[in-house]
Amino acid sequence: MYLILYNIVCCIGWAIVLTMGLQTVLAYDGSIKDALATVYDDSSNELPTYLYYVQTAALLEILHSALGLVRSPLFVTAMQVGSRIAALFAIVNSPLSQGEFRRYSFHFVWKFRWMKYILES
Predict the structure, then answer these.
(1) What is the mean pLDDT, run by run of 10 residues, along the chain of 121 residues?
(2) Can you give the pTM of this predicted structure?
(3) I need a labelling partner for 69 at 20 to 30 A (CA). Which of 22, 78, 83, 101 fits?
């Protein structure tokens, strides 16, 4: 019963993060590239905070593995969860990575030129 509740709460958390992200991007008047960059740039946006909480809840997955509640190997689970949390904290807290996000968004759009016209319209 606990694992079902845990998964429901995580699912709701990720749905909130998705909704907040979509609202942020769709409310932006500029290009999609700039809109994606504002997800972490805007200080009034609470998305990074919610993302911290939802992703940090994944630390319980390591505990679930250690206690034998799931059949996942402990080391693999710890590496997966740890890398996701480290990446999240690096992206959200690094001004350099926010600039890199803009640059790679541009490269993504440029590589898929047909998408460029769809996204700009």
Answers:
(1) 93 92 80 72 72 90 94 93 86 62 61 58 54
(2) 0.68
(3) 83
